[in-house]
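S1.2 Input.
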Amino acid sequence: MKKLLVSFLFCSAGFAAVAQRGKVNSAEDALKNQDLAKAKADIDEALQHEKTKDDAKTWFVKGKVLEAMATKDKSAALAQEAFQAYKTALDKNAKMPEALLTMNQSMYNLYATIGNAGYANLNDQKWDSAYTNFKSAFEVADYYNSKDLGGKLPTDTSMTFYLGYAAQQAGQKEAALQYLQKAADLQFKGEPALYVILAQAYEEKGDNAGWLKTIEEGKKVFPKDKRFNDMEMIYYSKTGKTAELLTMLEKKVEENPNDFQTQLDYAIRVDNMANPRDEQGNDLPKPDNYEELMNKAEAAYKKSVELNATDPTANFQLGAFIF
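S1.3 Output.
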């Protein structure tokens, strides 16, 4: 009698295991028929059973179901769940035949879904969420690219820039510098703001070498963008490199001899070089080339008034200079 009972229990356990594996197959069939609710219910049931909860196939199917749901609903949260399910499946069996055949497309779907959520956050100026989603998208790509599964997700230089931009807007300064510099290293040319923001980040950090290098790279990549010339002059001014600044200013005047604003800006800057002051407005020692700078400033002030005799700023500055 005991033998019959043991045999009966053993058979029952076997049937239960088969039934649960059947749930995995049923989930796959439901997924093929686009019945995502049934697919989710079946795979969740299989994951509750001792005989199937640790199978790589079960977790792989869960990833497929969640991937389909995430893609349909454009849900970054579901995409994250799908990613974790796929990771679990690969941790249990890194060479699953199904994974080798389909994982490249699946990982790209998750990467794109999470990345697109980041772009939506960016458009809504939800900086923290944008930063989190962009970062998560790259975690998907980095993980997949670290595996030998027969494919790679390409590096998205645009998203790299926007990850850095979102980090900067979210106050994540170190992360912003890291990703913005990576975008520059990848030679992202889609947006000159990359070099503007990156230069500002180096300036805030007090890294003068990085600051100047970024400005120079910005000028090289976007030669028609005048902001980089202005930024270079600000750099030379703030770092006290007056000789370099004067050279740049004079070059700008030579290129625009009859431009009123250029003449006036030059006059004011050279005047300030000749008469430096500290942050409290107190006079600092005069430079060795004081007389030379004063003569250049006077000539530029007069030229600016000649170009625009009614401009109040030019007239005031010349009057104050003579006084």
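S1.4 Remarks. The two ends are 121 Å apart (CA to CA).
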